[in-house]
Write a structure and sequence with these properties.
Two copies of one chain form a homodimer.
Chain A lengths: L8 H5 L10 H9 L35 E6 L5 E4 H6 L3 E8 L22 E10 H8 L7 E12 L2 E10 H4 L5 E6 L2 E2 L9 E3 L12 E7 L6 H4 L3 E2 L8 E2 L6 E4 L4 E2 L6 E3 L2 E10 L5 E8 L2 E4 L1 E2 L10 E9 L2 E11 L22 E7 L1
Parallel strand pairs in A: 1-10, 15-22
Antiparallel strand pairs in A: 1-2, 3-4, 4-7, 5-6, 5-10, 7-8, 7-9, 11-12, 13-16, 14-15, 16-20, 17-18, 17-21, 19-20, 21-22
Chain lengths: ~375, ~375
């Protein structure tokens, strides 16, 4: 196989999970969608450009001078807002950890064919934007409303369905106080790849929900039937299973790989003696209650540091390790306040969604 | 094969070019090293976070308060400069296009094993920094000097060789007026992944020369014998060929893929009628003289726009295309002022360096 950009017609026609090697289409997605190198877990706020991005189609070219946000559907007063009008509304700041629902997909066997993430589809940013409920209040949502659809300017075809990227959320979730229409990330206007001029933020949910390049908010009397809502982003056993929709981020911890790497294998080398193992943990539907570190199969509780970044961002943790020479296997797993704990053997699902397998790192201590 | 982060011992031991499929080690590199999505060719200056990055080891954690740049070796007055001292020196701005020497590697057959770039290891930034010759003048370079070595804070192992990343350049090249010690990128302090607090910029050269996270500049009386200079980055026919060192960027043009994509295959769909094909072209050892666009095998000269970004950055080009319904193959190739033209069939080399194969895009016009 050459890793050429020419299509593999067989793969294009059949997107069933594969037991085979990585294919060129996966590589095309991997070279254009960046993950967060895990050493960047050291930063409270992920520096600009290191936050993961997953862009289904192309980054659209939006001119803020002519861009408008339309708010319509079951509302009393449809709105048509300019970029300046949005930025003039009372805004709030929130630090939010985002993770792609497909993170970890490439570890599954058979492997669902889509962006082949390993562990790095994460990031935490300081967002600023207008609480959505204020905009919806201004529009006057009908009492018949049940669902709110968010449409982006990104356009393409996915599994034969031509579309503008769109996702919906139930009205009660849309009205939560933490939901923002964000126009700043890390104290700067949104970058093109993160949704300029405006994106949705539904803190706690997997990344597919935070619609970028927003153009329209539509209020519906019935559940939205778009592709990204009804076809993509489901926990399914097989092609015929209806399954359960992907929503909030599952509990997860990740560790900064200690020591230094080999360029190609990324195997780690660590000096013997006291090593501080550090990482972050987050939970989308609850809160982080516990982080454990596994060293050669033995679990020890890490110190879980205070949640200084707020309820919707990762928490840091650390553990002192007296590293003796030789090869060691490190892992970490978090438990949330509901008692959900990360698996050490990943349950499989048909689309490769919501993987939160405990991270594994092989190190050689010298 | 599962795309797990666990090492494949066979691949780790033998880094010979492969005729086989993509391996997990290549995926690990692809998910942590981001390319520039080609629609970003639309921007004169690549927005922050969309510029490609290739990081051999880890992004180092540098504290600017304690960081120092040492200038020593064959100099009369060794220097030890703080971040504030560097930033207080007279600085200059320069717009520079960078390309990874391994760009296009994944298209070769057999495929050299390293970061599996397709076309996207590029970017153009507005850099600001101190001309290197001023710092070297201040240190007083010995008349015996022939080579200048630049060492970064990034540490790791590559093909069995433990090292801080380091590259050298001959003294006369180091003294060229466009060579900068850069501390700003796109009007902001360098981001961690781009070399904070200070990186080298040798405009016109492939990316390996622009050493990030600089800690030391050493002047030598003989050529530097480090790994990245003597082992990596050579044009070689086979393992035993000494070959030629990789230096300046070869002539290249790239096109914004027109229309919109299919998510997984990235196949393009275009509306029929007038389409403006647009792109950029650059040349590291000369200047861009011509860009041609191939449509279904027929070459037409594109309009080469003025070099508004200076001598070291890409130039934009465009061509009007009256697109008729059906499937079409688009390509583009540039020619430099020396008459070098991009190949439409890529010559192979052992490390996968300096590939400038004409880009190919399949589109369906409807």
């Amino acid at each position: 196989m050459t890793a050429d950009a020419k299509l593999s017609p067989k793969a294009a026609a059949s997107l069933l999970p594969t037991e085979g090697p990585l294919i060129p289409e996966e590589l095309q997605l991997a070279t254009r969608n960046g993950g967060m190198p895990l050493e960047a877990l050291r930063y409270d706020i992920t520096p600009v450009g290191l936050h993961y991005q997953l862009i289904h189609f192309d980054i659209p070219d939006v001119d803020p001078a002519t861009w408008r946000l339309r708010v319509d559907g079951l509302v009393e007063r449809p709105l048509d807002l300019s970029y300046d009008e949005i930025r003039a509304l009372p805004a709030e700041k929130l630090t939010v950890t985002l993770e792609c629902a497909g993170n970890g997909r490439a570890r599954l066997f058979p492997r669902p064919l889509s962006m082949p993430w390993l562990n790095e589809a994460i990031g935490t940013a300081r967002w600023r934007g207008v609480p959505l409920h204020r905009v919806l209040d201004r529009a006057g949502v009908s009492r018949k409303a049940v669902d709110v659809v968010f449409t982006g300017a990104d356009h393409g075809i996915e599994k034969g369905c031509e579309q503008d990227y769109a996702r919906s959320i139930q009205l009660d979730d849309a009205l939560r106080p933490e939901v923002l229409l964000a126009f700043e990330m890390n104290d700067q206007p949104l970058l093109p790849q993160h949704g300029f001029p405006l994106r949705l933020l539904i803190p706690g949910w997997y990344g597919m929900m935070h619609v970028k390049w927003l153009t329209r908010i539509e209020v519906l009397a019935q559940p939205f039937d778009g592709y990204q809502q009804q076809v993509a982003y489901w926990y399914k056993k097989d092609a015929n299973d209806r399954g359960e929709p992907v929503k909030r981020m599952r509990i997860r911890a990740l560790m900064v790989p200690p020591g230094f790497p080999d360029y190609f294998t990324r195997h780690r080398y660590v000096e013997h003696g006291l090593v501080i193992l550090r990482g972050r943990a987050w939970a989308g539907k609850s809160s982080v209650a516990r982080v454990e570190v596994g060293i050669d199969g033995k679990w020890t509780d890490a110190v879980l540091h205070e949640a200084t970044l707020g309820a919707f961002a990762w928490r840091s943790w650390s553990l002192e390790w007296n590293a003796g020479p030789g090869d060691h296997e490190l892992t970490c797993r978090a438990t949330d306040a509901d008692g959900d704990v990360q698996p050490t053997k990943q349950p499989w699902n048909f689309q490769g969604m919501g993987n939160n397998l405990a991270q594994q790192i092989s190190v050689t201590v010298r």
